[in-house]
Request: fold
Amino acid sequence: MEGWPSDFVQIVAALVQNPYMGIVIVDKNGYVTVANDTYIHIVGKTRDEVIGKYIMDVTSNSQLPKILETGEVHIADYWPCNGHDLIVTRFPIYNKEGDLIGAVGKSLFLDLGDAKALAKKVADLEEELAFYRDAIKSVFSPKYCFDVIVGKSSKMARLKSMAEQVAQTGSTVLITGESGTGKELFAHSIHRSSPRAHYPFVRVNCAALPEHLLESELFGYEEGAFTGARKGGKPGKFELANKGTIFLDEIGDMPLPMQAKLLTVLQEREFERVGGTKPVRVDVRIIAATNCNLENLVEQGKFRADLYYRLNVVVLDIPPLRERLEDIPLLVQAILPRLNQRLNTNVTNVSSEAIQLLRKYHWPGNVRELENLLERAINLADLNNEKQLTAKHFPSLQKQNIENILIDKKGETLADAVEQLEKEMIRQVLKQTNYNKAQTAKLLGLHGSVLYRKLKKYNLG
Reply:
């Protein structure tokens, strides 16, 4: 080290004489040129017995000659020496011309117990990491699969088949349909059936987040980006969804400025955190959903045309319930056990008359409304310890049914409309009394003979 700066020489000397690490350096012929006090203590010899001696004469089980011969690097090798159990590293030394000039051996741990302690610490950290990984997975994981999407109508069968095929690709998916049709079920199911199923599924409700928070929620922020920003910053939903799927629900309600930033992510697959300067790259699949007509919004200038075209790759349009009324019995059969479990009730079935009543309704709220009406009906039945849902448990639908009769009879005479209404009222009260004619007559305020004539007239007997 002659001619080198004195400070540098002192630093190197301090490193070599590290009391927590044994160090030995040999030349290309295997003779010891440098050995610190720790190494000399480990081998149990004096300095004169080590420096300038052939390494195999110092320690007969040294592996440094092998390093000189093969050029191998031993990162962490077990080496017992003079009653010590050490973990050591060995590597060759080359000059700037690339010629071998020696080899170094140094201990990573002076005692195997230290290595075991480190191994335990690493194992504990891995266990903790696995815990948090599982926690994140449980929060950002799909809740539904295609099996829970009920429907055998031709429209639903085609839609499910298409969605199952699309799940295997990485294409962007746009799910459209009225509120309550099950758009989120399809989004979850597509992710769960995709190659990304073991990675996060992150849902963002674009309509629920205030405009000033949406950017930081989607893209995250750096420390100090704004007043109240968390120390160390915060990852956004896109980062959390990396390698998985991000579900942008109600995307039609996304503000125009955010649409421009989302378009950049779709095109470049990278973004910057709020307050950041470095681009963050992500590998994420995008599924978007809306109950709006995006084409109309584009024409009105409320939705970017370029973003619409980027989203409009694969479109799944979920039909409203009124267009698949044949699925109502299956939907009731699927929803009833789930509601019983949640409500701790035991209503086992639904009468055919009630099913017919459900099929006559136009369902503006779709499947979500059906579930709400069933929950209300179950509560009514449970109050009277009844195990079956009948038409009487759906009073709002009975009223709606009568209103529909009057609407359908527009253009007919008053007498015809009154007859239809009378027939419907008698039919409903018969069901309510389990076809007890005496009780039906009493509830309707009719004499028994009058009721019998009307039953015969309307063919209800």
The chain has three domains: 6-114, 146-317, 323-457. The mean pLDDT is 85. The two ends are 116 Å apart (CA to CA).
